[in-house]
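User: Good morning. I'm curious how fe (ii) ion would be positioned relative to this chain. Could you predict the structure with it bound?
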Amino acid sequence: MRLAVISDVHGNAPALDAVLEHIAGEHVDAIVLLGDHVSGPIDPKGAAERLMGLDAVAIRGNHDRWTVDTGSRGAGAVDRFAQGRLSAEQLTWLAGLPATAEVGDEIFVCHGTPENDETPWLDNFYDGRTTTLPSEEEVAGHARGIDSAVILCGHTHIARTLRLSDGRLIANPGSVGMQLVRGSPDAHYAIVEKGRRGWQTALIAVPYDTEAAAKLAEANGFPGWGESIRHGWAGPESLG
Ligand SMILES: [Fe+2]
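Assistant: Good morning! Here's the predicted structure, ligand included:
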């Protein structure tokens, strides 16, 4: 089993195109989408079109909930922008996504943690333009009750893979379309594969035309996104 793992596209269709082109050369058996698919100022409709066209397992993230229901606590301007760009069919697709899913017998997928799509798992929430690591107890605690050998999560936009002391693999592929904190503008995704020695992860970063994407975000009224898109050294407060 060889999986491509995509998370946090945030409506960045050009970054998604670069990732899908890379995946086309990777001979994967399945694609998994971990949520926050469309909420962003670049091309939410184009991102939804591409994602709905994939034969992929998809779950929802916190921003997908907020794009569907822009009146809920936490929803912001960029969720309203995305909602305004999506077709009725695309919004129906988004509204119907589950919070978590299983792929085969060995893989569990969620957006934040198994219980909550707003809780960061492998990194703590950002402190300005940096972040800190949670303790082993905190990381292991969120995996309690999940028997799967592989657990995939997103939400933090920080690519990381680790093993719990019992051997279970947890991997976060990072974000396709919105980079934060540690300076890589590239579109991130992951390949997770069951090899001869067990489950293994490759964290992949693909370059794309960030300048064109940043200009689109700015033209659509979100100048704060330019910093994140152009160089990736940004904290969430700069997104506006
Ligand atoms: Fe996100």
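The chain is about 30% helix and 20% strand. The two ends are 40 Å apart (CA to CA).
Let me know if you'd like a different ligand tried.
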